[in-house]
Amino acid sequence: MISFEHVMKHYPGRGKNAAPVVALDDVSLTIEQGQIYGILGRSGAGKTTLLRCLNHLEEVTSGTIRVAGTDWTSLQGKELRSVRRQMGTIFQHFNLLASRTVFDNVAFGLELAGEKKQDIAPRVTELLDLVGLPDKAQAHPSQLSGGQKQRVGIARALATRPQVLLMDEATSALDPTTTEQILDLVKDLRDRMGLTVLLITHESDVVRRICDGAALMADGRVVEHGNLLELVSDPESRIADQLIPLGRAQDAFEGRSQLLSFVNQGVSEPLISTFTRETGINVSILGGSVEQIAGHKVGRLRVAFDHPHGGGLDDALIRQFFNERGVTVSK
Protein backbone atom coordinates (compact mmCIF):
# COMPACT_ATOMS: atom_id res chain seq x y z
CA MET A 1 0.00 0.00 0.00
CA ILE A 2 2.70 2.50 1.07
CA SER A 3 6.35 2.01 0.23
CA PHE A 4 9.37 4.20 0.86
CA GLU A 5 12.25 3.26 -1.42
CA HIS A 6 15.71 4.64 -0.53
CA VAL A 7 14.24 7.98 0.51
CA MET A 8 16.69 10.78 1.31
CA LYS A 9 15.85 14.23 2.63
CA HIS A 10 18.53 16.89 3.03
CA TYR A 11 18.18 20.45 4.31
CA PRO A 12 20.75 23.17 3.58
CA GLY A 13 23.32 23.56 6.33
CA ARG A 14 23.67 26.78 8.25
CA GLY A 15 26.47 28.95 6.97
CA LYS A 16 28.02 29.39 3.55
CA ASN A 17 30.07 26.20 3.46
CA ALA A 18 28.13 24.12 5.96
CA ALA A 19 27.34 20.52 5.08
CA PRO A 20 23.68 19.70 4.44
CA VAL A 21 21.59 18.35 7.31
CA VAL A 22 20.50 14.77 6.63
CA ALA A 23 16.95 14.35 7.98
CA LEU A 24 16.17 11.07 6.20
CA ASP A 25 18.97 8.70 5.32
CA ASP A 26 18.16 5.91 2.83
CA VAL A 27 14.77 5.00 4.32
CA SER A 28 13.13 1.92 2.85
CA LEU A 29 9.90 0.69 4.42
CA THR A 30 6.68 -1.03 3.34
CA ILE A 31 3.28 -0.67 5.04
CA GLU A 32 0.62 -3.12 3.93
CA GLN A 33 -2.96 -2.13 3.19
CA GLY A 34 -5.16 -2.20 6.30
CA GLN A 35 -2.27 -2.11 8.76
CA ILE A 36 -1.94 0.23 11.71
CA TYR A 37 1.77 0.99 11.57
CA GLY A 38 3.71 2.90 14.19
CA ILE A 39 6.91 4.89 13.66
CA LEU A 40 8.75 5.14 16.97
CA GLY A 41 11.70 7.33 17.79
CA ARG A 42 12.98 10.20 19.86
CA SER A 43 12.66 13.85 18.86
CA GLY A 44 14.85 14.55 15.85
CA ALA A 45 14.84 10.93 14.68
CA GLY A 46 13.17 11.85 11.37
CA LYS A 47 9.63 10.57 12.08
CA THR A 48 7.71 13.75 11.25
CA THR A 49 9.92 14.47 8.22
CA LEU A 50 9.02 11.05 6.87
CA LEU A 51 5.32 11.80 7.29
CA ARG A 52 5.67 15.25 5.70
CA CYS A 53 7.38 13.71 2.69
CA LEU A 54 4.57 11.19 2.41
CA ASN A 55 1.83 13.83 2.27
CA HIS A 56 3.96 16.05 0.04
CA LEU A 57 4.43 18.89 2.52
CA GLU A 58 8.14 18.26 1.91
CA GLU A 59 9.86 17.18 -1.29
CA VAL A 60 12.24 14.25 -1.06
CA THR A 61 15.85 14.85 -2.07
CA SER A 62 15.97 11.44 -3.73
CA GLY A 63 14.19 8.12 -3.62
CA THR A 64 10.60 7.14 -4.29
CA ILE A 65 7.38 7.03 -2.28
CA ARG A 66 4.57 4.90 -3.69
CA VAL A 67 0.97 4.74 -2.51
CA ALA A 68 -1.21 1.99 -4.02
CA GLY A 69 1.39 1.60 -6.76
CA THR A 70 1.45 5.29 -7.74
CA ASP A 71 4.74 7.20 -7.53
CA TRP A 72 3.79 10.18 -5.38
CA THR A 73 7.17 11.86 -5.74
CA SER A 74 6.49 12.58 -9.41
CA LEU A 75 3.05 14.19 -9.00
CA GLN A 76 2.40 17.90 -9.45
CA GLY A 77 -0.49 20.36 -9.61
CA LYS A 78 -4.00 19.07 -10.14
CA GLU A 79 -2.87 15.44 -10.12
CA LEU A 80 -1.22 15.91 -6.72
CA ARG A 81 -4.26 17.68 -5.26
CA SER A 82 -6.45 14.82 -6.42
CA VAL A 83 -4.41 12.06 -4.77
CA ARG A 84 -3.95 14.10 -1.58
CA ARG A 85 -7.63 13.51 -0.94
CA GLN A 86 -6.68 9.87 -0.39
CA MET A 87 -4.94 10.92 2.83
CA GLY A 88 -6.34 12.42 6.01
CA THR A 89 -4.16 13.79 8.82
CA ILE A 90 -4.79 14.03 12.56
CA PHE A 91 -2.57 16.55 14.36
CA GLN A 92 -1.17 16.72 17.88
CA HIS A 93 -2.72 20.11 18.66
CA PHE A 94 -6.02 19.52 16.82
CA ASN A 95 -5.63 22.56 14.46
CA LEU A 96 -9.34 23.38 14.61
CA LEU A 97 -10.65 26.75 13.44
CA ALA A 98 -11.74 28.57 16.61
CA SER A 99 -14.28 30.77 14.82
CA ARG A 100 -16.09 27.84 13.24
CA THR A 101 -18.50 25.38 14.83
CA VAL A 102 -17.73 21.68 15.03
CA PHE A 103 -19.99 21.13 12.01
CA ASP A 104 -18.21 23.81 9.99
CA ASN A 105 -14.75 22.52 10.96
CA VAL A 106 -15.59 19.09 9.57
CA ALA A 107 -17.24 20.66 6.50
CA PHE A 108 -14.22 22.85 5.75
CA GLY A 109 -12.20 20.17 3.95
CA LEU A 110 -15.20 19.19 1.85
CA GLU A 111 -15.70 22.82 0.87
CA LEU A 112 -12.07 23.10 -0.22
CA ALA A 113 -12.44 19.88 -2.19
CA GLY A 114 -15.33 21.43 -4.12
CA GLU A 115 -18.07 19.16 -2.82
CA LYS A 116 -21.62 20.23 -3.59
CA LYS A 117 -23.32 22.05 -0.73
CA GLN A 118 -26.24 19.64 -0.62
CA ASP A 119 -23.80 16.72 -0.21
CA ILE A 120 -21.78 18.27 2.61
CA ALA A 121 -24.40 18.37 5.38
CA PRO A 122 -25.30 14.64 5.31
CA ARG A 123 -21.62 13.69 5.13
CA VAL A 124 -20.74 15.84 8.16
CA THR A 125 -23.68 14.47 10.13
CA GLU A 126 -22.58 10.92 9.28
CA LEU A 127 -19.02 11.64 10.44
CA LEU A 128 -20.05 13.23 13.73
CA ASP A 129 -22.18 10.17 14.46
CA LEU A 130 -19.20 7.98 13.58
CA VAL A 131 -16.90 9.67 16.11
CA GLY A 132 -19.53 9.94 18.83
CA LEU A 133 -20.26 13.69 18.68
CA PRO A 134 -23.74 14.01 17.17
CA ASP A 135 -24.77 16.50 19.87
CA LYS A 136 -21.75 18.81 19.41
CA ALA A 137 -22.38 19.99 15.84
CA GLN A 138 -23.07 23.61 16.85
CA ALA A 139 -20.46 23.84 19.61
CA HIS A 140 -17.21 25.75 19.15
CA PRO A 141 -13.77 24.24 19.84
CA SER A 142 -13.41 26.28 23.04
CA GLN A 143 -16.40 24.40 24.46
CA LEU A 144 -14.86 20.97 23.92
CA SER A 145 -12.52 18.77 25.94
CA GLY A 146 -9.22 17.65 24.45
CA GLY A 147 -10.64 14.25 23.55
CA GLN A 148 -13.67 15.81 21.88
CA LYS A 149 -11.42 18.15 19.87
CA GLN A 150 -9.43 15.18 18.64
CA ARG A 151 -12.64 13.38 17.66
CA VAL A 152 -13.52 16.43 15.57
CA GLY A 153 -10.03 16.21 14.05
CA ILE A 154 -10.64 12.56 13.18
CA ALA A 155 -14.00 13.36 11.58
CA ARG A 156 -12.39 16.15 9.54
CA ALA A 157 -9.56 13.84 8.43
CA LEU A 158 -12.08 11.26 7.21
CA ALA A 159 -14.34 13.74 5.40
CA THR A 160 -12.99 13.08 1.90
CA ARG A 161 -13.08 9.28 2.36
CA PRO A 162 -9.30 8.78 2.39
CA GLN A 163 -7.59 5.41 2.06
CA VAL A 164 -4.79 6.41 4.45
CA LEU A 165 -5.01 8.07 7.86
CA LEU A 166 -1.90 9.82 9.17
CA MET A 167 -1.51 10.52 12.89
CA ASP A 168 1.25 12.94 13.90
CA GLU A 169 1.68 12.55 17.68
CA ALA A 170 -2.12 12.69 17.75
CA THR A 171 -2.47 11.61 21.39
CA SER A 172 0.50 13.41 22.95
CA ALA A 173 -1.66 16.24 24.30
CA LEU A 174 -4.24 13.89 25.87
CA ASP A 175 -4.45 12.21 29.27
CA PRO A 176 -4.00 8.40 29.41
CA THR A 177 -7.69 7.53 29.62
CA THR A 178 -8.63 9.81 26.71
CA THR A 179 -5.67 8.47 24.74
CA GLU A 180 -6.99 4.93 25.11
CA GLN A 181 -10.45 6.02 23.94
CA ILE A 182 -9.05 7.78 20.87
CA LEU A 183 -6.84 4.82 19.97
CA ASP A 184 -9.75 2.39 20.34
CA LEU A 185 -11.82 4.66 18.08
CA VAL A 186 -9.07 4.70 15.44
CA LYS A 187 -8.78 0.91 15.54
CA ASP A 188 -12.56 0.56 15.19
CA LEU A 189 -12.59 2.97 12.24
CA ARG A 190 -9.75 1.04 10.59
CA ASP A 191 -11.71 -2.19 10.93
CA ARG A 192 -14.98 -0.68 9.66
CA MET A 193 -13.55 1.42 6.82
CA GLY A 194 -10.53 -0.60 5.70
CA LEU A 195 -8.13 2.26 6.38
CA THR A 196 -4.37 2.07 6.42
CA VAL A 197 -3.09 4.02 9.43
CA LEU A 198 0.42 5.41 9.82
CA LEU A 199 1.10 6.94 13.20
CA ILE A 200 4.11 8.89 14.39
CA THR A 201 4.77 8.68 18.11
CA HIS A 202 7.38 8.59 20.85
CA GLU A 203 4.94 6.81 23.18
CA SER A 204 5.40 3.05 23.53
CA ASP A 205 1.88 2.66 24.95
CA VAL A 206 0.38 3.87 21.66
CA VAL A 207 2.24 1.27 19.62
CA ARG A 208 1.56 -1.44 22.19
CA ARG A 209 -2.20 -0.82 22.16
CA ILE A 210 -3.17 -0.75 18.48
CA CYS A 211 -0.28 -1.32 16.06
CA ASP A 212 0.16 -4.33 13.78
CA GLY A 213 3.66 -3.33 12.71
CA ALA A 214 6.29 -0.84 13.77
CA ALA A 215 9.57 0.78 12.82
CA LEU A 216 12.17 2.40 15.05
CA MET A 217 13.97 5.46 13.69
CA ALA A 218 17.19 7.08 14.88
CA ASP A 219 19.28 9.77 13.19
CA GLY A 220 17.12 9.71 10.08
CA ARG A 221 17.44 5.97 9.53
CA VAL A 222 15.11 3.02 10.09
CA VAL A 223 17.09 0.83 12.48
CA GLU A 224 14.44 -1.86 12.97
CA HIS A 225 11.04 -2.67 11.49
CA GLY A 226 8.58 -5.49 11.02
CA ASN A 227 5.49 -7.29 12.28
CA LEU A 228 4.98 -6.29 15.90
CA LEU A 229 4.44 -9.80 17.26
CA GLU A 230 7.59 -11.01 15.54
CA LEU A 231 9.56 -8.08 16.90
CA VAL A 232 8.49 -8.55 20.51
CA SER A 233 9.36 -12.26 20.23
CA ASP A 234 12.90 -11.39 19.14
CA PRO A 235 15.29 -11.21 22.10
CA GLU A 236 17.53 -8.79 20.17
CA SER A 237 14.73 -6.37 19.31
CA ARG A 238 15.13 -2.77 20.44
CA ILE A 239 11.43 -2.19 19.90
CA ALA A 240 10.65 -5.11 22.23
CA ASP A 241 12.86 -3.51 24.88
CA GLN A 242 10.77 -0.34 24.62
CA LEU A 243 7.40 -2.06 24.64
CA ILE A 244 8.20 -4.59 27.39
CA PRO A 245 11.13 -3.14 29.35
CA LEU A 246 12.92 -5.52 31.70
CA GLY A 247 15.93 -3.57 32.93
CA ARG A 248 19.37 -5.08 33.36
CA ALA A 249 20.23 -8.22 35.27
CA GLN A 250 21.27 -7.84 38.88
CA ASP A 251 25.04 -7.86 39.40
CA ALA A 252 24.89 -11.23 41.16
CA PHE A 253 23.42 -12.79 38.03
CA GLU A 254 25.35 -10.81 35.40
CA GLY A 255 26.49 -13.09 32.59
CA ARG A 256 24.19 -15.98 33.40
CA SER A 257 20.74 -14.48 33.09
CA GLN A 258 18.51 -15.59 30.24
CA LEU A 259 15.41 -14.19 28.56
CA LEU A 260 12.18 -16.14 28.19
CA SER A 261 9.88 -14.76 25.46
CA PHE A 262 6.38 -16.00 24.70
CA VAL A 263 3.27 -15.03 22.75
CA ASN A 264 -0.09 -16.39 23.99
CA GLN A 265 1.36 -19.80 24.88
CA GLY A 266 2.54 -20.10 28.45
CA VAL A 267 1.12 -16.80 29.63
CA SER A 268 -1.22 -18.40 32.17
CA GLU A 269 0.63 -21.69 32.69
CA PRO A 270 2.80 -22.34 35.79
CA LEU A 271 5.89 -22.96 33.66
CA ILE A 272 8.51 -21.91 36.19
CA SER A 273 7.20 -24.09 39.03
CA THR A 274 6.68 -27.01 36.64
CA PHE A 275 10.23 -26.65 35.32
CA THR A 276 11.73 -26.61 38.82
CA ARG A 277 9.65 -29.59 39.94
CA GLU A 278 10.57 -31.70 36.90
CA THR A 279 14.27 -30.80 36.66
CA GLY A 280 15.27 -29.87 40.20
CA ILE A 281 16.83 -26.64 38.83
CA ASN A 282 16.08 -23.42 40.70
CA VAL A 283 14.90 -20.33 38.81
CA SER A 284 15.46 -16.77 40.03
CA ILE A 285 13.11 -14.21 38.45
CA LEU A 286 14.98 -10.94 37.82
CA GLY A 287 12.29 -9.02 36.00
CA GLY A 288 9.40 -9.47 33.66
CA SER A 289 6.11 -8.32 32.24
CA VAL A 290 3.07 -9.52 30.34
CA GLU A 291 1.45 -7.01 27.98
CA GLN A 292 -1.43 -6.97 25.50
CA ILE A 293 0.17 -6.24 22.11
CA ALA A 294 -1.60 -6.36 18.75
CA GLY A 295 -4.46 -8.27 20.37
CA HIS A 296 -2.18 -10.94 21.87
CA LYS A 297 -0.73 -11.54 25.31
CA VAL A 298 3.04 -11.17 25.05
CA GLY A 299 5.44 -11.89 27.87
CA ARG A 300 9.16 -11.44 28.54
CA LEU A 301 10.85 -12.75 31.65
CA ARG A 302 14.47 -12.25 32.71
CA VAL A 303 15.58 -15.27 34.78
CA ALA A 304 18.68 -17.01 36.08
CA PHE A 305 18.95 -20.81 36.38
CA ASP A 306 20.87 -22.37 39.26
CA HIS A 307 21.54 -26.00 40.22
CA PRO A 308 20.84 -26.41 43.97
CA HIS A 309 23.82 -28.70 44.51
CA GLY A 310 26.30 -26.73 42.46
CA GLY A 311 26.06 -29.06 39.49
CA GLY A 312 26.34 -27.94 35.90
CA LEU A 313 23.35 -26.79 33.89
CA ASP A 314 22.15 -28.66 30.83
CA ASP A 315 21.38 -25.82 28.39
CA ALA A 316 19.87 -28.24 25.89
CA LEU A 317 17.47 -29.57 28.54
CA ILE A 318 16.42 -26.05 29.52
CA ARG A 319 15.79 -25.02 25.92
CA GLN A 320 13.92 -28.21 25.11
CA PHE A 321 11.56 -27.79 28.08
CA PHE A 322 10.62 -24.22 27.21
CA ASN A 323 10.70 -24.54 23.42
CA GLU A 324 8.21 -27.43 23.58
CA ARG A 325 5.84 -25.04 25.37
CA GLY A 326 6.21 -22.21 22.86
CA VAL A 327 8.72 -20.20 24.87
CA THR A 328 11.96 -18.88 23.36
CA VAL A 329 15.10 -18.98 25.53
CA SER A 330 17.94 -16.58 24.76
CA LYS A 331 20.74 -14.68 26.45
Automatic annotation (TrEMBL):
GO biological-process terms attached to the record: amino acid transport
- Report domain ABC transporter positions: 2-244
Q: Which SMART domains match?
A: AAA (SM00382), NIL (SM00930)
Q: Which InterPro entries match?
A: AAA+_ATPase, ABC_transporter-like_ATP-bd, ABC_transporter-like_CS, ACT-like_dom_sf, MetN_ABC, MetN_ABC_transporter-like, NIL_domain, P-loop_NTPase
- Top-level taxon of the source organism: Bacteria
Q: Name one GO cellular component term.
A: plasma membrane
Q: Which residues form the signal peptide?
A: none
PROSITE patterns found in the cross-reference section? ABC_TRANSPORTER_1, ABC_TRANSPORTER_2
State any single GO MF term: ATP binding
* A Pfam family of this chain: ABC_tran
Q: Does the keyword Zinc-finger apply?
A: no
What UniProt keywords apply to this chain's record, in alphabetical order?
Amino-acid transport, ATP-binding, Cell membrane, Membrane, Nucleotide-binding, Translocase, Transport
Q: Could you give the subunit structure recorded for this chain?
A: Homodimer. Forms a membrane-associated complex with FtsX.
Q: Which family does it belong to?
A: Belongs to the ABC transporter superfamily.
Per its database record, what is this protein's job? Part of the ABC transporter FtsEX involved in cellular division. Has ATPase activity.
Q: Please give the name of this protein.
A: Methionine ABC transporter ATP-binding protein
